[in-house]
Structure formats: C-alpha cells, structure tokens
UniProtKB/TrEMBL annotation, chains A, B:
Lineage: Eukaryota, Fungi, Dikarya, Ascomycota, Pezizomycotina
Keywords of the record: Hydrolase
InterPro entries in the cross-refs: Aliph_Amidase/BUP (IPR050345), C-N_Hydrolase (IPR003010), C-N_Hydrolase_sf (IPR036526)
Organism listed in the record: Salinomyces thailandicus
One example GO MF annotation: hydrolase activity, acting on carbon-nitrogen (but not peptide) bonds, in linear amides
Top-rank taxon, per record: Eukaryota
Classification via Pfam families: CN_hydrolase
Coiled-coil region: none
Name under which the protein is recorded: CN hydrolase domain-containing protein
Length: 345, 345
C-alpha cells in the first residue's frame, strides 16, 4: 500500500535584527503559496523562523531579549496568526519554529506541528540538545552562541505523533486484532527535532523506537563560527564547507539508520550583513539519499513527492529492531551523561 | 600534545571454500610485511579473516561447519600462530577476526586485539548485532546470511581498552590528582566492533562514553545480496553501489558523531567465483572525512598517519557529552527492543 505525500522544506534567508515580524510572515506566506501551487501537503519552516538568530547576540536587558520571544498561544498572536490562517486556507500542514516564553517565564527553543485538516496544533517540541555556552566569549569580536543562556533544555522528550488527513485509506486501529500494530499502516507517525538535535543519534532513535516515518527539523547553523571554535586553522570558507558537510552527513546517516524520511529547513544567509548561516535544506529518504536540496542561500521552497512505504525495507530488514537490537548491551546510554575512562567503569 | 600513530587496514580479497588456512595466513603475513615497510604500528584485518564467508552457506553437518571455526587459544593454533609471531617480530599490533567455538560449544563472531609490545591479546570482542536469519531462504538460488544460525550474540558488551606502547609520553594516572581523567592523555583508548555493528549508533555511543579515540572493525558485506532482499527492483550493480554507499555513510557519520577515528577492513571479492563481497576499506577521521580508502577489490593495505589529538575538537566542543547530553530523555533506548506505536507507550 503506497503512502505517498508531497512535502516541502521552506528555507528562509537573511532576517536582520530590526526586520519586523509582519515582513517575515509575508515572506513565509509567499513560500506557502508557492507550496500550494505544487500541491504540497506539508511544509517545514526553520528553527526560530520569525526573527534573526538572536542567540548570537548578548542582550543587556530582558526587554531587548524578549522581543524575539513569543508569549502565549502563537496561533493567536496577531503578528503570526495570518500564517496559520493561510495554512488552513491552503490545506497545508506546517511546522514552525520559534522562541517560546512560558507563563512561568521559562524560555524554550520550540516548534509546533499545525494540522490544516484538524485546524489546530497537534504537537509541540522543545529543543533538547542546546549548543553553545551560558557565558559570552571574552573576545568582543567572537560570534556568540548563547542558547544555553536563553533557553532551558526541552522538557517534552521526543514526542512522536500521528498526522491525520495526509495519507488516504489508512488502516484503523479498530480494524485490527489485539496486539497488531498500525505502525506503517495507520496515519503516518512523525517526529520533530531542532537543529543541533540532528547530531545526536539518541534523538533519532527515540523517535524510530516509536515507529516514526518522517523526522522534521529546522536549523540555524553558523557558517562563520566553526573557524573560531576549531582547534585547526581554517578560513571562513573552509569552515562553511565543513559545516554543510556535517549537516548533510548526519541527516543522511540518521535517516538511513532509523529507516525514516527526513526534512531539514535552514534559516540561512547573512543576517545584518555579518552573521552567516549555512543553507543546505534537504529532504532525505530512508536509504540515506538526498532527494531534494536547496540551491540558494535565500528564501527557497524544495519539494519532494515521497512514499512513506519506502521506510518498510529498512524497518523490516536491516533495521528490524525487534530481531536485531540488543538492549542488554546499551545500558550506559541513558545512565551516564559524560565520558568515563574504561578503568573507572 | 600530539598523539600520532601510523595505522592500516589490511583488506583481504577472495577466499574460496577450499582455500587452506596456511595459504590465507601467508597472504596476511605479506600484508603485514608491507605494513612494516611503511612503519605501520597497528593493522586491522577483516571480520572472519581466515576463511571464506561461510554464513552464506547452509551446512548439513556440524563437522562441515566446524572447519571454519577456531577452537581454543587462536594465538596457539598451529595454522594461525605464524601471524602472531610475525606481528611480534615486526612490532605491529593487530586486530584479527575469526569464528570462535568455545569449550561449551557456543559459536561467536569474534575478533581480538593482539599487542606486539605486550606480546599478548589485550581484548576480545564478540559481535553483538548479528544480521541475517536463523532459517535458510526457501529459494535455493538465494544467497543466505545465516549468522543468526551459526553464532550467538556477543556476551562481552562493548569493551573499551587501553593500548600501551603506541603513543610516546602519555600522561600516567599516577601523576594526576583524584578525579582528573587520562581520557585523551593516557594510553590511547580503543574499541572494536564487527561488520553490522557499524550500522547501530548504540554500539558507537557505548564506546564513546568510555572515551574511545579509535573504533576498529572488519566486515563481510554482500555485494550481490541486497537486490534479492530489497523491496525495490535493483540490478546487482546497483545493489553493490548502494551497499558501498551505506557502508561509507555510517562509518563517516558515526566517526563524526562520536568524535573518534575509525578503521574498517573488508573481506571482499568474489568467493568461489560467485559470492560477491564489497570492498571499500576506509580510515575516517573524527570530523567524518575519509583519509584513506581501498582502490581495489583484492588484498590491499591502506595506511594513514593519524593524530588522536584530533578527537579533541569534537570531544571538547560539539560533542562534549558532559555539557550537552540529556540522558533523562533517552530512557527507551536500553529498555525497549522493538518499535511500539506512540499511543501504546
């Protein structure tokens, strides 16, 4: 049984510190309209889609920082609501990333899955693997990465979920005998992660243990940062090539090792003419091949017609977890955070 | 402090069912002599180095099967001992894979690390992730993969170990204060896996949680099997290209995500003129780049001069586990073997 859907990543180019949200939303709606033209059913927007990538700046006041955050229900925010209205009108599900400030005052790097057919948010994800540092670099010329200062680690785990309305003629749970599974036969099972999570195989595995057929993530990845951090001398151009290489490598390999599709969507370009973010938005299949890839460093829609049934080969053969995984040997993975030398174990 | 060593993979081409072990050992010693010429300090030989890849055959008697197995201490086996003698003479550490029959009669797909300076086996590893099936295919023309029939899953876990004598001027534990670690400063920390293990991120992570700087594995990977298993029609040539792509992809990505070097060594070529195994032996650096790669499908030594200190950038920054891992979100990984649909969790 084919499980075909048309999906897209909506890559978003430079956004400056003083770019207004209305202007950004207009660009996102343009991309959504282009998606509708291609009969796309699901569009993934980037991490922190709505503003410049502010964790590269140190802010002196809470007020300066908070203008980059969303407060309350984002679908009801006057600035952002038109995007969700357009999604409903076009009948396109969307994933949108944003900085979330909770009622308790906690900051999270968040994304949501909004279903056009259900007309509501089906799932929220909060970024688990925050990169960077709490304290800014001493060098005033260095480009900071202050996610650990501005956000708490996500507290929702890796919540897989079903997305109804995308694939016709799914097998319903009620039609099955007790114990029979609708994984790969019912409504598709999706998972979201954000940026740096993609480098952590644990995140992918938590999802694939829940039958996920498609992982979606946005990213903001510095193109002119690695040469400052690295122990090897590199030009900014070399550092950018390396960052793109790593981004693609982990998406391809983790899609393969978890027998799932993946969609990545970049916030990219040169924010404020200075802060360079890599592009390279991509859609990968469960065999690890890139099936669509951005060609620019600006606003760009990439589209693929995918068949989720292609996950079956991996999930039923090489990566049939029930036959091949050996959990009795994996004990340290959720018990030991850091490295311990073998003699001390 | 540089931690340079010269390492090699010794790829081994076709071995037929009736090829004698003495003939194989002579070929391995040739490769070892070539390694000595290049001042190599460590050579990795393939999985089941000493015989044809017998799990593609169904044997009718235990006697037929057992001629492919080693019984007792392999370093004392009259057939194989000359290899270890040569390793000692050349001052080269070696990793050798073989089928092991224990005193209790259990079969394991095993490899050992033999230290030339210590003149003994430092560590044994038994393959954890056995691919294939217990029962042969019904189609008599299909090429079997009967590892689950002939071997038990490894019972030694993922045992990281120190290899002395390779890197000069290491920091000794006794010179450090309590709590200070010699990871990355003492004798290098190594880990072994075998073939299919390389596709399982859990195996790599168990090692990197123990500070491993170099993962070594041999493989026997079918080049004319995937087109028989796959759900998509493929020619044998396409299946072989795909198998090579996957092999390289997982080695590169897992080396990067675990900030370690890796050496893979293929048993390859056309056994008995019929059973095709991919080549593609490779040495990867901790940034995921291939630094040396086999060019043939036969006996071939590939050499790289590596600096284990290059692991530091990954281990101290992007993949600084103690700062970035979130074990509270990884709970299913060692508790749930197979896939469970999200609603049932």
């Amino acid at each position: 049984m084919a499980r075909k859907i048309i999906v897209a990543a909506a890559q978003v180019g430079a956004i400056n510190q003083d770019t207004g949200k209305a202007e950004v939303i207009a660009r996102l709606i343009n991309l959504l309209n282009e998606a509708a033209h291609h009969k796309v059913q699901l569009v993934v927007f980037p991490e922190c889609t709505l503003t410049t990538f502010f964790p590269c700046h140190l802010f002196q006041t809470q007020e300066e920082l908070d203008r980059y955050f969303e407060h309350g229900d984002i679908t009801q925010s006057p600035d952002v609501a038109p995007l969700f209205e357009q999604a409903k009108t076009s009948g396109i599900d969307i994933v949108v990333g944003y900085a979330e400030r909770t009622l308790e005052g906690n900051g999270y790097n968040t994304c949501i899955y909004f279903s056009a057919s259900e007309r509501k948010v089906l799932q929220k994800y909060r970024k688990v693997h925050l990169p960077g540092t709490v304290e800014p670099f001493e060098d005033p010329e260095a480009i900071n990465q202050l996610e650990k200062r501005y956000f708490k680690p996500g507290d929702l785990g890796f919540p897989a979920f079903r997305a109804p309305g995308l694939v016709p003629d799914v097998v319903k749970q009620s039609t099955l005998k007790a114990g029979q599974s609708t994984v790969g036969r019912g409504d598709p099972i999706f998972g979201m992660m954000i940026c740096n999570d993609r480098r952590w195989p644990e995140a992918w595995r938590m999802y694939s243990l829940k039958g996920v057929e498609l992982v979606m993530f946005g990213f903001n990845t510095g193109g002119n940062m690695a040469h400052l951090w690295g122990s090897k001398p590199m030009t900014p151009e070399q550092a950018k090539t390396e960052a793109l290489f790593h981004s693609k490598l982990v998406q391809q390999a983790n899609s393969y090792m978890n027998a799932c599709f993946s969609i990545s969507s970049a916030r990219c370009g040169l924010d404020d003419g200075k802060y360079d973010l890599i592009a390279g938005s991509a859609i990968c299949d469960p065999e690890g091949h890139v099936v669509a890839e951005a060609q620019t460093e600006g606003d760009e829609l990439i589209v693929a017609n995918i068949d989720l049934a292609d996950c079956r080969q991996g999930k039923e053969k090489t990566f049939d977890f029930s036959r091949h995984r050996r959990v009795e040997t994996y004990g340290l993975i959720d018990k030991q955070t850091g490295v311990v030398e073998p003699e001390l174990l």
